[in-house]
Amino acid sequence: MSERTVPSAGRSEPPLLVAGGTLVDPVARRTRRADLLVRDGVIAAIEAGISEQLPRRGASTIHRIDATGLLVMPGFVDIHVHLREPGFEYKETIATGTRAAVAGGVTSVACMANTRPVNDSPAVTRFILERAHAAALAKVFPVGAVSLGLAGEQLAPFAGMYDSGIVAVSDDGMPVMDAELMRRALECAKMFGMPVIDHAEDRALVAGGVMHEGAVSLRLGLRGIPAAAEDVMVARDIALAGLTGGHLHVAHISSAGSVRMVRMARAAGIRITAEVSPHHLWLTDEAVTDYRTNAKMAPPLRTEDDRQALLEGLADGTIDCIATDHAPHHKDEKDVEFDCAANGVIGLETLLPLVLRLVEHGVLDLPTAIAKISSEPAAILGLPLGTLEVGRAADLAIVDPQREWTVDPSQTFSKSKNTPFEGWKMRGRAVYTMVDGRTVHEERPAGTHAKAGEAEREARP
Amino acid sequence: MLFARPHLLGLEGLTAPEIDFLLDSAESFKEVSEREIKKVPALRGRTVVNLFYEASTRTRTSFEIAAKRLSADTINLSASASSAAKGETLTDTARNLAAMRPDAIVVRHPSSGAPDLLARHVDCPIINAGDGAHEHPTQALLDLLTIRERKGRIAGLTVAIVGDVLHSRVARSNLFGLRTMGAKVRFVGPPTLVPPGFSELGAEIVWDLHEGLKDVDVVMMLRIQRERMNGRYFSSLDEYSRLYCLSADAVARAREDVIILHPGPMNRGVEISSTVADGPYSVIMDQVTNGVAVRMAVLYVLVGRRKAEAESETVDSEGGAPVALAAASPRRAATGE
Q1: Measured between CB atoms, which of B109, B114, B201 is closest to A218?
Q2: Is this prediction's ipTM beyond 0.95?
Q3: pTM as predicted
Q4: Contacts of A381 (CB under 8 A, 6+ apart)
Q5: CB-side neighbour CA atoms (13 Å) of B246
Q6: Cα(A281)–Cα(A263) distance, rounded to whole angstroms?
Q7: What is the mean pLDDT of residues A163-171?
């Protein structure tokens, strides 16, 4: 997998010392007490006791963050986000979406192509990158469309978009029904070392369904989407990945059958990776009870058996990473009949505690859990991010693992409020988020958060 | 009063005493319809809005007659005449209606869960008159009343529900209601229309009509919607009819004293043969009569109770929990529910 270079802001700010924290290293899969020195936007040193040596080094104007009792992690990399700009700025903008990202400790996002216009041209790719640059918060990596206009007919210009900065291609939201087009996409994307991100749902089997097909959909009288709608598409695309040697990345995997097939395909040497969303890990179709439209998304929340298979797949490495599928929608698109409600939930600001919960529940150890939202997703896109290494960009999430908070949609940095986790008691929060050594988010101490949130909201453009 | 809920959104989750209470109330209202002057002043000065987003003759008429016999004023709004065509959302329509202070909104809507959505946005009682493929609680209540009258009980009976169960709100409401009242429910139909997942909801599933009717006390036929028999769920109406039309032969498999229900309107010769529909087992006309009584009971319980509460609040503003709210739970425990 080729690594892409990522431009760094490269400022000459005073050095910054993160002192006294516990570093979580997702690559070595361990934690250790050490100080971390940031200079010119990159990690300059990682050693125990830098703080004692510093005066001798003559750094008098050094900035210092006391990370005692905190966890120092690589900033998180979320490879499945809908930033909605251009075209749907009433749901989210690149500025608000990346603000939500850094509030959740996420320093890099890959954004999907289903904007208006669709990101199926170098011009749209460049527009997204310009807006991201202007927002100057999280790093943004655009995903280009597989097909022009997501219409599933003609390939989009991969080469031009690649030169402008896309890192993958996907018709996310509009599954590629034409198997031959999917085959060609895998072949072409391979030239650029890019994965094809697969929204695996057979639209014929979805057949107008609005939730998982099972006892709950029958009880509620809602049209169901069988797990087989995902399974047949994953099976098809595994065959095509085998045929082409292209890199298939299965987005938001949700069914036990798909997890089994990905496991088998990988064992057979097929180039396949997979991501799972926090909501599929923690919720089931029971969450739709009372027609809660914030539990409506594609693919839908499935059964407890599926959820267990996802946890197992995550634990045994079949599922490489966790990605939010952050999908902001306006209240008016959710406060309607369930059949009419938009698909999708926001997730950037709840990602971290829902990942830490995996550690609490014994599914993963801490460094592995963090690897699923840092080094692993970065590797899928070939990005030199998501690690704590000297010489790498100082994209950091400094986390208070004990901070308890309650999910309150009125407090989101995202423009949209469509979270299925409203009212959940969470533990763990990013208290400092840094991109290229620059603090882009800082939490006030517990108790003053709401007020601080208001102040920051006012300060937004 | 044994029914303390603010709305009637479905039969799922209602307790046996609550259902019994509604059936008892309905029974007492039947007498009103036998009088020369078919009117009682129970809901005088109250306004009931019938908000229908789907065509309906029978249910809407039944609700309207029920409300009028209770002396309520009724307004009928149908989707074609309402704001739906102009693009107004359901919640906006509901808020606008609520601002006119109706005492109840009876709603029928093609989307499952639409009454739940309304209930979250307005503060008057919502009565579900059929939502998508979800529930049609007053239909199931009138079915339960009809069965109870004819059989003297509901507990211990076996009821076969035959036809397009997948798309039927009548089937779901009856499943929930019948099971709560202690009956056994058998769903009969092809796998495309009776998916196996229903067994997780407590129904027995049988594909063969003759086998499905074996020794049942009650047969409930569902209406087949012709537009669904388009070659996807079943090859054709003829094919369907060949396997599932209720003939005298099939009825012979049931218990001798079987009764046959149909929510109407019937497709004669498709899901039910005329011989059976007009035959001695058919209680279809009882159902229609009971429909008015059940809807009177539901309106009276939900709207009249509010009236009583409003009066008690004016008398005693410190009143705490209204009397009606206190009633349900202890009795529920007493019946071992």
Answers
A1: B201
A2: no
A3: 0.91
A4: A4, A77, A79, A110, A141, A167, A168, A195
A5: 34
A6: 18
A7: 98
